[in-house]
Design a protein that fits this description.
This protein is an all-alpha fold and 62 residues long. The chain contains three helices and no strands.
Length: 62
């Protein structure tokens, strides 16, 4: 549970940094994302998840 909460805390920090450091850029980026088709967003999400799984796998085998 300790590792899970640590990972969750780090994820929240990383997710919050752009909003704190560059709120204007985030607004522009979100406006651009809003105009993207759902198929593109699903593909991007899947790619991000697979990259995360690959990273976790590589970290755990080395």
């Amino acid at each position: 549970m300790k590792y899970f909460l640590t990972a969750l805390g780090l994820a929240l920090i990383l997710e919050g940094m752009p909003y704190f450091l560059a709120p204007g850029a985030i607004k522009k980026t979100l406006a651009m994302i809003k105009d993207q088709p759902e198929k593109f967003l699903r593909g991007f999400g899947l790619t991000a998840m697979l990259a995360g799984v690959a990273l976790l796998y590589l970290v755990n085998i080395f």
